[in-house]
Every structure is written in structure tokens, then in C-alpha cells.
Design brief:
By secondary structure, this protein is an alpha/beta fold. It contains seven helices and six strands. The protein folds into two domains: about 130 residues, Rossmann fold (3-Layer(aba) Sandwich), CATH 3.40.50.150; about 55 residues, no CATH class. The protein binds S-adenosylmethionine.
Length: about 240
């Protein structure tokens, strides 16, 4: 492992200070519509990977919904955007992907020296079967599913890769399995929950809101604004999706 500093484009130079790995012009989003025409390229983020998150997305989610040393899960980790941000922001991290190539890309992306003590674990796995992760053991889920088969991450070669699925109903059924795996894991990606409850019609929205409120109260007892914000975001995503 080397200590890296970005000097230009995707060229890195050893033995410089880590502070230069942090973004210089990042600010937290304050509305629900996020747009990043200028994609962040700090640290080892690499926009040439097709269909990855702009790092501003994972940084916003992590800063808004977790604190240092929390455990963040991204069970469709892809090129490792969430992993890089967790390392930079001192969150412990579990990254999973069904595609070994993504695991290799992510491991390389997090191979930089950091002052944070974040523990980063990256493993091959199926987001529909997270038996190895205990319920209530995760503080935040920040994940980003495939775009049905618009981007084929394994070109049909890996069984269980949801990016091989063309049919929307079939895709939603498989996504539902992933959502169900999230529900026991403390605090899922709340807008995704609202949207999935609507699309799949599998769960009752009021039950989901009640259950999520109870879970958030355990963690954010003295921060009602966080509970309120998450509940609103579930409702908003639910209302915005036409059923
Ligand atoms: C949109 S990409 C994630 C991109 C990631 N946020 C990033 O910034 O690089 C979706 C990922 O889901 C993975 N995937 C597809 N089906 C999966 C499954 N059943 N279990 C785990 N990962 C899966 C794909 O291999 C792909 O890496």
C-alpha cells in the first residue's frame, strides 16, 4: 500500500499528504433534488467506470445519516464509491458484490493510506442473501442497484447478477428480495424503501413507517429532526412513484 495524492487526472503520486484526498469544494445538499454536473474526482474516485455513483451522492448520504465509526453496508458495491468515502470519513464498511471483478476494482480503490481507523471489508456475495450479516448490526445502508439491464455488469456471465434481467417485473421481484434483506438491518436507504414499497406492493406503507420510526427512535432518540426527515423521505418517495 502506498500513500497517494492525486496530481492530475487519474495519476497518483506516493508519499504526499492524505488531506489532499478530501474534496476541496464539497457542500452538503439541502434539498431533495441533487444534481452534480461536475462529477467529484477526489481521492481514487474514477468516473470512467460506467454506472457508478458521483462521489457527492455517497458523501451526502454518509454525512447526513451516520457518524464516525458507524457501520455502513453497500451490498452492490460496484467500483467502490461508498467504500472510498467510508474510508475517508472514518466509517466502518462492509462492501459486497456478486461480481468478483467489482471486488477487485473496489479493493484497489481503497488501497490508499488514511489517517482514519475505518475497517473496510469487501467480499463476494449476493445482496439477496445476507445471512452472514446479523440483524441490527448495520447503522446505514447506502446502495445503488443496477439499471435493469441498461448496463450489463457481467455480460450475462454471472448467475444472480440483476443487471442480466430485462423484464421489469422480474427485476422488481429480485429487488424486493434485496429490500427484504435490508429491513432487518436497522436503517435502510429510506427513499429506496418508499419507492420499493410502492412498486412491489408487498408491504403496507403505514406498517413500514411505524416500524422505521421505532428503529430510528432507538438510534436518534434526541434528534427528532433526523427521524422526521427519514420518515418524510420514505413518504415522498412512495408518493412520487406512480403505482
Ligand atoms: C449500479 S452498480 C453499483 C455502482 C456503485 N455504486 C459504484 O459507485 O461503483 C450495481 C452493482 O450491483 C451488482 N450486483 C448485481 N446483482 C447483484 C446481486 N444479486 N448481489 C450483489 N451485487 C449485485 C453489480 O455487479 C454492480 O456492481
Amino acid at each position: 500500500m502506498v500513500k497517494l495524492t492525486k496530481v492530475v487526472g487519474v495519476v497518483y503520486k506516493a508519499n504526499m499528504k492524505e488531506e489532499t484526498f478530501q474534496p476541496t469544494d464539497f457542500k452538503l445538499e439541502c434539498t431533495t433534488v441533487w444534481s452534480f454536473p461536475q462529477r467529484g474526482d477526489w481521492a481514487t474516485h474514477n468516473s470512467s467506470f460506467r454506472g457508478n455513483w458521483a462521489p457527492q451522492i455517497s458523501r451526502n448520504i454518509i454525512l447526513r445519516y451516520s457518524k464516525e465509526k458507524d457501520i455502513v453496508l453497500d451490498q452492490m458495491v460496484g467500483s467502490g464509491t461508498t467504500a472510498i468515502e467510508c474510508k475517508l470519513l472514518n466509517r466502518n464498511f462492509i462492501g459486497i458484490d456478486i461480481n468478483p471483478e467489482m471486488i477487485n476494482i473496489t479493493k484497489k480503490a481503497i488501497d490508499f493510506e488514511s489517517q482514519s481507523n475505518a475497517k473496510i471489508m469487501i467480499n463476494i456475495g449476493d445482496a439477496r442473501k445476507l445471512e452472514s450479516i446479523k440483524d441490527e448490526s448495520i447503522d446505514l445502508i447506502a446502495t445503488h442497484p443496477p439499471y435493469v439491464d441498461i448496463i450489463k455488469y457481467s455480460n450475462g456471465k454471472i448467475d444472480g447478477d440483476l443487471s442480466n434481467i430485462h423484464d421489469i417485473d422480474e427485476f422488481c421481484n429480485e429487488m424486493l428480495k434485496i429490500a427484504k434483506e435490508c429491513f432487518g438491518k436497522e436503517i435502510p436507504n429510506t427513499p429506496m424503501m418508499g419507492a420499493l414499497v410502492k412498486v412491489t406492493k408487498f408491504l403496507d406503507i403505514n406498517g413500514v413507517l411505524e416500524d422505521t420510526t421505532k428503529k430510528l427512535q432507538k438510534k436518534f432518540l434526541h434528534k427528532p429532526e433526523i427521524i422526521d426527515g427519514n420518515i418524510k423521505s420514505i413518504k415522498r418517495a412512495y408518493d412520487e412513484i406512480s403505482g
